[in-house]
Write a structure and sequence with these properties.
This protein is α+β, with helices and mostly antiparallel strands and 249 residues long. The protein has helices at residues 7-27, 37-50, 117-136, 143-156, and strands spanning 54-55, 66-70, 73-75, 90-99, 102-111, 160-161, 167-169, 176-180, 197-200, 203-205, 211-213, 220-222, 228-230, 233-237, 242-244. The chain has a five-stranded antiparallel sheet. The radius of gyration is 17 Å and the shape is globular.
């Protein structure tokens, strides 16, 4: 069931999203080669708790405030003291905050030091995919319009699009209806309505769109071992515009 949010709920979600944007602005300059992924997670926990929030991802079987995924890891990387980041890596941070019961969700992929030209291009195109998806997310369109917009940009660049995972409704829970695929597919295709709050999140691979899950039960990696990039924003739909709630500018 799709939950349309009222003005009060959107205001609460917006506040959570603005806090998440501030978190990113705080920690991105601190992420450097030599850090462990748990070091990055510690920065997130410190920031979130200091500002009265709770990490939205905490659960019994996932010990982390952030999903931190490196290179061929697509999503859901578990923070670890043993996992170090190195010069030349690309690192995806996917973070959510629960602020007074309102959930924010956003992801960004960072270049650590000097990265390859192919990594830079993948990151640029993934950002373009996100921008295209957001532009298509407006009242009166359908969810599949978002999928078509994302896919058109990725396919024109010759990249694989992750089809096993997708965007989603968000705001009152971490994952809500509707699903927001990054490829046009069969299945529900609801009309986009005012009051929808959606997490749009292209996951774009240098090679195949196929992925698999590691034995840790969480981390998703590319099937061919090639790089993956992940970008995400939470947006709120109004009758006359769509607001990017997690925008960092």
């Amino acid at each position: 069931m799709i939950r349309l949010k009222n003005d009060k709920q959107i205001a609460g979600i917006r506040k959570s999203c603005h806090l998440l944007a501030d978190l990113y602005k705080s920690i991105i300059p601190q992420v450097k080669a030599g850090m462990s992924t748990r070091d990055i997670d510690d920065l997130c926990v410190e920031f979130i708790t200091k500002h009265g929030g709770k990490p939205a991802w905490y659960r019994e079987d996932f010990d982390g405030a952030a999903c931190i995924s490196i290179n061929d890891e697509v999503i859901h990387g578990i923070p670890s003291r043993r996992r170090k980041i190195h010069n030349g890596d690309i690192v995806s941070l996917d973070i959510g905050i629960d602020l007074d019961g309102y959930i924010s969700d956003s992801a960004v992929t960072l270049a650590i030091g000097h990265v390859s030209d192919e990594a830079q291009r993948l990151m640029r195109v993934t950002k373009e995919c996100l921008a295209a998806g957001i532009a298509a997310c407006k009242a009166g369109n359908r969810i599949r319009d978002i999928s078509k917009a994302v896919a058109a940009v990725a396919e024109a660049a010759g990249y694989g699009i992750v089809y096993d995972f997708c965007g989603h409704g968000v705001g009152l829970d971490v994952h809500e209806d509707p699903s927001v695929p990054n490829l046009p597919c069969s299945g529900p295709n609801p009309r986009i309505q005012p009051g929808m709050v959606l997490a749009i999140e292209p996951m774009i691979n240098l090679g195949t769109g196929d992925v698999y899950e590691l034995d840790d039960g969480w981390t998703i990696v590319t099937a061919d071992g090639k790089l993956s990039c992940h970008e995400e924003h939470t947006v709120a739909v109004f009758a006359d515009h769509t607001e990017v709630l997690t925008a960092r500018d």
